[in-house]
Give the backbone structure.
Amino acid sequence: MGKIIVCKTSDIPLGKMIKVSIDGRDILVANIDGKYCATDDSCTHSGASLAEGKLDGCTITCGWHAAKFDCKTGKLIEFPAKIRDLTTYNVSVESNNIFVEM
């Protein structure tokens, strides 16, 4: 599919995250210290939107059952049961446009 523009850098302040849709797939894009990362937006436990959770540093906490993921790597950090890691996507910035590679 290639690189797809998802938003402007001004749309995601430092320490914030947003949900974008790419061809029907919900993707979370986060601004971690001026660097952008992208993962699937759906929690692998119950399918909650992670963009509705909390971002602390590079840790995303699901708002439904508090599963914690590293938004840079997609790896599960903490949850009582073993659940799948998140899929991550390459992100690039060109002329203040954020692109996600699918």
